[in-house]
C-alpha cells in the first residue's frame, strides 16, 4: 500500500492515486539546461560525480512497492533488507544492461534494448515516467519506448527553472523580491555593477548567480569594487573572444538571514495548486545540507508562505507546468519573509522525504534530514553502519535514526584511498534539544569508526560538520506553529 503522501502525488500527476510510476532520479538536470545559456566564466560545470549519481537511490524513499525505480547499479542487498525491516514500501529496481561510468543513468537506459522493451510494455499498460526533471534525455527516453511522461516536456522545464524567470515571476505576482537585477547581456551586467559600486565600496556584498546554477555551482559573492571589476573584465574578454554578448545571470543583495526555508508546491494536472509542506533548510555556502521539520514558523509567517505558494503555483500552471515545485525562501534578521529566493520546478531533496516522515515522524516530534560526509580507505558493508547507528538509540524509545541513502557511501571506492562518501539519514526525536544531541551523537560515532587518516597530512578529515565547524542543527524555536501540527500532505 502506498503512503498517503505518494497517493496524493500520484493523484496530482496522473489523476489516479493508484497509478504506476517509473522513476529516474536525474540529479544532473540543471547541467543539461545550462548548456543552452551563458553563465559566469569558469571551467564549466563538472560532470556529475559518482556520489551525486548514486543519490538516485533516494528514489527508493518515494516510489511505491508497485512502482519501478531505474538505477545505474543494484541496491545494496544489506540496505534493501534494512528498508524491508523498517517497513518502507520498496520498489522494484531496474538496472540497464549496458552501463558506462561516465554516462548518466538515462543515457545508459537509451543504450539498453532489453530495458527499453520492458519500459515500452509498462507504458502500454498505463505506467508513466517520472524523472526528477525532464531534460532532452528523459524526453528522448519517453518518446523512444512509448512510456509517456507524467510531467511536461524538456522545453517547459528549462523555461520555468531559470533564475531570471523565477525573479520575474516573483515580481509580477506582487511578492516581496530579494533586491536585485536580471541580466541577459554583458552590458546589462556592467550597468548593474556600476550602479552598485558605491554600495560595494561601503562594504555591502552582492551575489551573482548563473541562471541555471545549483548547489553552490555558478555562484560568486562580490565584496568590493575590485572583485566586481575583475569579473566584468573576464566576461568582456570572453564576449570579445566568442563574439557572443549573451549573459544569463541574476545579481542580488546578500541579505543577513535568520534561517533558510524550503517549501513544496504541487501543481496538479487538473489545475489545483497545493502547499505540501514547509521545512527549515540547512545550507552552507549555498550548498544544501539538509532539512529540519517542522520549520518553527509563526502563524503569520506560515500564512505568508501559503499565499506565495499559491501565487507561484498558479503562475507556473499558466505557463504550462504541472508537477512538484520546490521553492527556497529566507527569513531575515528582522523576521521578514522573502518567500521566493529560488524556484526549482522539479522534484527536490525534500520531495523524497515525504513518505518516510509520514511513516516515522509522529505528531509533535521533530526531524532532521541530512547527510554526513565520510572519508574512507575501503568500502564499508552496510551492516557496519547499521550496528553503529543501532547503539545510539534506545530500541524502546521514540528517537530514531534511519539511513535514507547508502549507495553514496562507497560510490568512489574504486578510487585510490582515501576517498570521500556520504551517508544520508533521517533523525527523529521528541524535541529540538534531543534532536541536536542525536545529530551530534551520529556525527561523533561516524567520525570515530569511519573517518580515515589522510596520508598526506597525517590528520583525520572532519566528518559531518558544516563549513563553519558547527553542528548542522541547533535548537529550534519552541513557538507553537501551524506547521508543527498540520500534516504535510492531506491524503
UniProtKB/TrEMBL annotation:
Pfam families named in the record: CPSase_L_D2, PreAtp-grasp
Entries under InterPro entries matching the protein: ATP-grasp, CPAse_ATP-bd, PreAtp-grasp
Record bears the keyword Nucleotide-binding: yes
Biased composition (Polar residues): 453-491
Residue ranges annotated for the ATP-grasp domain, each copy included: 167-377
Top-level taxon: Bacteria
Keywords: ATP-binding, Nucleotide-binding
Region annotation (Disordered) ranges: 452-491
Protein name listed in UniProt: ATP-grasp domain-containing protein
Organism, scientific name: Plantactinospora sonchi
